[in-house]
Design brief:
The chain is an alpha/beta fold. The chain has two domains: 21-41 and 54-423, TIM Barrel (Alpha-Beta Barrel), CATH 3.20.20; 441-613, Glycoside hydrolase family 3 C-terminal domain (Rossmann fold, 3-Layer(aba) Sandwich), CATH 3.40.50.1700. Helices cover 36% and strands 13% of the residues. The strands form six sheets. An eight-stranded parallel beta sheet has the order 13-11-9-8-5-4-3-14.
């Protein structure tokens, strides 16, 4: 027997759990100080190495069974519970870090979802939390536009120095605009390699929702588009790119979060369409991804009457998650709830009850409960009372343990911090992202054939950036590229004011008595200043970074922007509207002479948009959505 293969139970598992387990040794997990390793996984069909693959599968199952047999019921349930943590830098004795470390070590949780931070900070924190865990953690993260969706370096203030970070691709809708599945695959490859370098095992991506409702307040540009076939093609390519490079992909939000106008973070959303419509549209990308070997799935906190008439969130529905997903659609991978702290799933039930229902529905991972301890205790009690069976719990935990073995976490749970910089944000990865950004650029409208610009270097060109106060990157790359062609470029930024309104609670002196108006407002004085500067310009570019593609405000044009565009038009000024965030920005705004969509606010997209306008790069993007009254699906002028 190899040295270190077996260890006493007491060195791996905590004591004092609710149910007693027969003491027996279990295969060791890596101990502090173990050399880092990144074990690649493969989801490709068996080949001449079928025998070796079978042996590896048997090894995974044997290890999982041995660990599972040594766990108490409380420890088993804890493996299903994952909590949220920032990926930021923290001192070892920072209260926030100590709190999450305590949860992991004392509750013996099975995984975490890591959020924003610099790449080195994320890797360092993941290593530290792995060291705190009795059994190795599975780590997930929302990596919808690549690893940089959570691992950008931020800015140093007050000098406005960009601190670098992982590689940023356009929002998925921009990839849809390229119509190029090879770019979707490359996005997956880069996402997996960079994410794994930071210690992340599951990408909560791709978004497989079909965004066929322009008023959707949650999905928007996170989707590949409004056409089910396009979403299926791009989604499966992204899944393959992720999973063939060592990471598990997680399709979301099953069975489809596209055709709704409710925000599932705030309330129970509803997709009120027939089963036949679901089969032909919403379910089509999910089935295609499952057929392509998708390993993970995330649920939708929404009501779909065609599937379940009890007005239950799909996350908690046996009919949706077991009968439809598991039985009819043949998905046998890891099923992850969307965040359990969202009102769309909680509604009027307690956290404990929501957790039990999620397990009953067939979920393997209970993501971000409001209280991890309460959730664990609720499920343990449900088993003790016979509402849930031990076999049901074992089925989920075994899958999770097998995944941990597949990643090699049973022998090496840490990543090599020295190796992070050789992968994350590398020149080759950045080149792939720049290509995607360039091919995504879509020219929706150009009535005067302004694009590409045919102006002399001394022309009067004005660039008006509309962005929030905290968006330090807005317009920087765009204006820098423009200034290389027009050295006298005049640039200014309009920062809409956000008004806090007192509610009845505030008037009564209660906490939480303020709300933010959904529409930031450009102050009249700012608009008048912009008009004065733009007067007599050869062309004015109005670039909007307002309304991130993932929140309610993104669907509403900023107050003051329609008036500004109208005033520029009345002054006979040629205007090019450029949208960097909200692809539906043109709806509700006066039509401008030209309209360009860049699909993301990152520097790569800013420079790609400017290069396209200057004629330094071709424009080939095609709309993956319909803009009612503006342009149809597939529209896009080629330059």
């Amino acid at each position: 027997m190899a040295k270190g293969w077996l260890v006493p139970l007491s060195t791996v598992l905590a004591v004092g759990c609710v149910a007693a387990a027969r003491p027996r040794p279990i295969p060791t997990v890596s101990t502090p100080g173990t050399a880092a390793a990144t074990t690649s996984i493969s989801t490709s069909p068996a080949s001449p190495t079928r025998g070796a693959s079978s042996r590896r599968a048997l090894s995974r199952e044997a290890w999982a069974d041995s660990v599972l047999g040594a766990l108490t019921m409380r420890q088993k349930v804890a493996q299903m519970v994952w909590v949220w943590t920032l990926g930021d830098y923290t001192a070892v004795d920072a209260p926030g870090y100590l709190a999450i470390e305590k949860q992991i070590s004392e509750l013996e949780l099975g995984g975490i979802i890591v959020s924003v931070g610099g790449p080195m900070d994320i890797a360092t924190k993941v290593n530290a939390l792995q060291r705190s865990a009795k059994l190795p953690l599975l780590v997930g993260a929302d990596l919808e536009t690549g690893a940089a969706f959570r691992a950008r370096g931020g800015w140093f203030l007050p000098n406005a120095i960009e601190l670098g970070g992982a590689t940023s691709f356009p929002y998925q809708m921009g990839i849809g605009a390229t119509r190029d599945p090879k770019l979707a695959y490359e996005m997956g490859r880069v996402t997996a390699q960079e994410g794994r370098a930071m210690g992340i095992h599951m990408a909560f991506a791709p978004v497989l929702d079909v965004n066929n409702n322009p008023k959707n307040p949650v999905i928007s540009a996170r989707s590949f588009g409004e056409d089910a076939s396009l979403v299926a093609e791009m989604g499966t390519a992204l899944v393959r790119g992720i999973q063939e490079h060592g990471m598990l992909a997680t399709g979301k939000h099953f069975p489809g979060h596209g055709d709704t106008e409710q925000n599932s973070h705030l309330e129970l959303s509803r997709v009120n369409v027939s089963r036949a419509r679901l089969d032909s549209v919403e379910l089509k990308p999910f089935q295609a991804a499952i057929d392509a070997g998708l390993r993970g799935m995330m649920t939708f906190h929404g009501d779909l009457p065609a599937l379940d008439t009890t007005h239950t969130a799909a996350t908690l529905s046996v009919k949706v998650m077991t009968d439809l997903l598991r039985t009819q659609m043949k998905f046998n991978g890891l099923l992850v709830t969307d965040a359990l702290d969202m009102n769309g799933v909680l509604g009027g039930v307690t956290m404990g009850e929501a957790t039990i229902r999620a397990v009953e529905a067939g979920n393997d991972v209970l993501l971000m409960p409001t209280d991890a301890k309460v959730s664990i205790e609720a499920v343990v009690e449900a088993v003790a009372k016979g509402r849930l069976s031990e076999a049901r719990i074992d089925a989920s935990v075994k899958k999770l343990l097998m995944a941990k073995h597949e990643f090699g976490l049973h022998t090496a749970r840490y990543v090599d911090l020295e190796a992070v910089r050789s992968t994350v944000g590398s020149a080759a990865n950045q080149a792939a992202a720049r290509e995607a950004a360039a091919k995504a650029i879509t020219l929706v409208r150009d009535t005067l054939s302004l694009v590409p610009f045919k102006l002399p270097r001394q022309a009067k060109v004005v660039s008006i950036t509309v962005s929030s106060r905290v968006d330090l990157s807005a317009g920087r790359g765009f204006d820098a590229e423009l200034r290389s062609a027009f050295p006298n470029l005049l640039s200014l930024t309009l920062t809409p004011e956000v008004v806090a309104e007192a509610t009845a609670g505030a008037a009564a002196g209660n906490a939480g008595g303020y709300r933010i108006t959904p529409d930031p407002t450009i102050l009249p004085a700012s608009a008048e200043n912009a008009l004065a500067i733009a007067r007599g310009a050869d062309v004015v570019l109005v670039s909007s970074y307002i309304g991130a593609a993932t929140n309610t405000a993104s669907m509403v044009p900023t107050q003051g922007l329609p008036e500004l565009l109208t005033a520029l038009r009345d002054a006979n000024t040629k205007v090019v509207l450029v949208s960097f965030n909200n692809p539906y920005l043109q709806l509700g705004l006066p039509l401008t002479e030209a309209h360009l969509i860049a699909w993301s606010p990152w520097t790569s997209a800013q420079r790609a948009a400017a290069r396209a306008l200057l004629g330094r790069a071709p424009i080939t993007g095609k709309l993956p959505i319909t803009l009612p009254g503006v342009a149809s699906f597939g529209a896009g002028l080629v330059r």
